[in-house]
């Protein structure tokens, strides 16, 4: 039986100008998985994420976390934001302290922990994100990739059960994108559930355990990466493209040049099939 950490029941939200951003959204997120949300701009991904730790409150419907409906008192919101953390797309929105150590320690200090526990958590978060050597450096002197990792450390220090990331590889070169991917994999190995939105279809295909496709605030498709990209109706409805590795494999398969019970998820897996 699957263990769902988050459930959305008929989640609906309209902005003050009347724009309906989410429309009777129903979905379940399995604990410990790597989940990607795909869709064009305006599909509702960011609005959804802002609901998951109570930044926005639904017009209708509910969010269930660990089998308990989300409540919106200050006390309950503080609890949920310790359990579900958000890493925003632009790290400059998130980072505000004078240097890296102060930045990452802020969240832990607000948990009223013992000083030794704060130090332990901050040092671990800095080491896990590979920014420990920059701990005394002013945040505004960091590179964009370094800022991205510090913004993840900001959330890691809280030791959440769920981390939400809005476009984590946006504006990064391939080297730094690979570093973020490796970091996310390491975080997930600890049992942390990861949710991200991305326009990088190839990354979502190779990285995700499960994918949701949104369009106009509604769910148009969900499944494993192979299930999602095998379904042309979902792809068309979500106005997204198929991953390059997937398309190349399908073209080779159609010509009888390759065959595999497991469709390759990345370039290396595809090349191994071709070399056989």
TrEMBL record:
The keyword Transport applies. It is a peripheral membrane protein. Residues 6-241 form the ABC transporter domain. It holds the Pfam family ABC_tran. It comes from the Bacteria. GO terms for molecular function: ATP binding. PROSITE patterns: ABC_TRANSPORTER_1, ABC_TRANSPORTER_2. NCBIfam families: cbiO. This is ABC transporter ATP-binding protein. It comes from Clostridium punense.
């Amino acid at each position: 039986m699957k263990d769902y950490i988050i459930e959305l029941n008929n989640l609906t939200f309209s902005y003050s100008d009347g724009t309906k951003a989410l429309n009777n959204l129903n979905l379940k997120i399995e604990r410990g998985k790597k989940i990607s949300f795909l869709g064009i701009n305006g599909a509702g991904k960011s609005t959804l994420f802002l609901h998951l730790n109570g930044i926005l409150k639904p017009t209708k419907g509910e969010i269930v976390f660990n089998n308990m409906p989300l409540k919106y008192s200050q006390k309950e919101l503080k609890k949920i934001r310790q359990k579900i953390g958000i890493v925003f797309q632009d790290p400059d929105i998130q980072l505000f302290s004078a240097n890296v150590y102060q930045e990452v320690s802020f969240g832990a200090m607000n948990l009223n922990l013992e000083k030794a526990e704060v130090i332990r958590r901050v040092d671990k978060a800095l080491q896990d994100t590979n920014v420990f050597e920059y701990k005394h450096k002013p945040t505004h002197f960091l590179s964009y990739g370094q800022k991205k990792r510090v913004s993840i450390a900001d959330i890691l220090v809280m030791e959440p059960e769920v981390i939400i990331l809005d476009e984590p590889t946006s504006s990064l070169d391939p080297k730094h994108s690979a570093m973020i991917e490796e970091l996310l994999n390491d975080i997930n190995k600890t049992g942390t559930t990861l949710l991200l939105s991305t326009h990088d279809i190839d990354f979502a295909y190779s990285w995700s355990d499960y994918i949701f496709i949104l369009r106009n605030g509604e769910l148009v498709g969900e499944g494993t990466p192979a299930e999602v990209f095998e379904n042309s109706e979902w792809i068309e409805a979500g106005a997204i493209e198929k991953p390059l590795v997937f398309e190349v494999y399908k073209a080779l398969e159609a010509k009888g040049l390759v065959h595999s019970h497991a469709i390759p998820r990345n370039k290396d897996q595809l090349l191994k099939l071709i070399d056989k």
